[in-house]
Design brief:
Blueprint lengths: L3 E7 L6 H6 L7 E6 L6 H7 L3 E4 L7 H10 L4 E5 L3 E3 L1 H11 L9 E6 L1 E5 L2 E2 L10 E6 L3 E2 L10 E2 L2 E4 L4 E3 L5 H21 L6 H22 L6 H25 L1
Parallel strand pairs: 1-2, 1-4, 2-3, 6-12, 7-13
Antiparallel strand pairs: 4-9, 5-13, 6-9, 7-8, 10-11
Helix pairs in contact: 5-7, 6-7
Length: 256
């Protein structure tokens, strides 16, 4: 019987997928991957770890492919990861303990939030609201699913959820150029969300997105949540995360 399944969506992740899958050895009983037609070695690496791979298109919102992977899992529990994430040994032990509890000791828990450490410009961010970056990634089969509305959304779990203590390591950007590429993609998606919401274009929304939202966000993350403790990486992260508002708004204006 499959106890714990890994669900993962990939696209050109040959540099990341190996360490990710290596970190779940001895933890998961099956690996279900939905690949968006990678043109690198991602699929061959997945298969070398025994993954069941479905190859399909690569939609702008990759959560669509994540849900496809989730739907194919047969385990009692599902662990959903991104290719650039690594399960630490401490987290592995904690997950094994959680999914192997006897039913009478599980207190009807249907999902677990996992704290995540995000690497940015060579260091894990510890402040600025970036740690603990709780993400809902472990849930019973049939209980958890992604809404497919945003690339930054959390899974929705039907039932009780609790928090694990040990972190998941996240290595999203090997360099700043890679970060800027993702920044461009995410602001494209945000602009599409503004369009779908039919945001009115007037002086108030212009002032809000060009000036107020970025200032408030920067002060919130860098000052209130002490992003300055993370030094230069903390400053850059707060700055660019605040700039997503005017950039998304500008791209939205270009669509009109």
């Amino acid at each position: 019987m499959v106890k714990l399944s890994l669900a993962i969506a990939t696209y050109n992740e040959e540099e990341n997928i190996g360490p990710c899958l290596e970190s779940v050895k001895g933890l998961v009983s099956e690996i279900i991957a939905v690949d968006g037609s990678s043109n690198d070695k991602t699929v061959s690496i997945l298969k070398s770890f025994g993954a069941i791979v479905e190859i399909t298109v690569n939609p702008p919102n990759f959560h669509i492919n994540k849900n496809k992977a989730i739907d194919k899992c047969k385990g009692d529990w599902i662990l959903q990861l991104d290719a650039d994430e690594v399960v630490t040994p401490e987290l592995k032990r904690e997950i094994l303990k959680a999914v192997n509890l006897k039913p009478e000791n599980q207190q009807s828990v249907d999902g677990y939030w996992i704290p995540r450490k995000n690497m940015f410009l060579g260091r894990f961010l510890t402040k600025g609201g970036q740690y603990p970056d709780y993400t809902l990634r472990l849930y019973r089969r049939g209980k958890g699913r992604l809404p497919e509305k945003s690339v930054h959304e959390q899974a929705i779990v039907k039932g009780k959820t609790v928090y694990l203590k040990n972190p998941l390591f996240h290595y999203p950007y090997p360099d700043f150029k890679h970060y800027l590429k993702h920044f461009d993609l995410y602001t494209d998606f945000s602009a599409e969300e503004l369009e779908s919401d039919n945001l009115k274009i007037n002086p108030l929304t212009f002032l809000d997105y060009i000036l107020l939202k970025p200032i408030v966000w920067f002060l919130k993350t860098f000052i209130r949540h002490k992003g300055f403790y993370d030094g230069f990486p903390g400053f850059v992260f707060s700055l660019f995360s605040s700039l997503r508002f005017p950039v998304s708004y500008y791209k939205y204006l270009q669509k009109k």
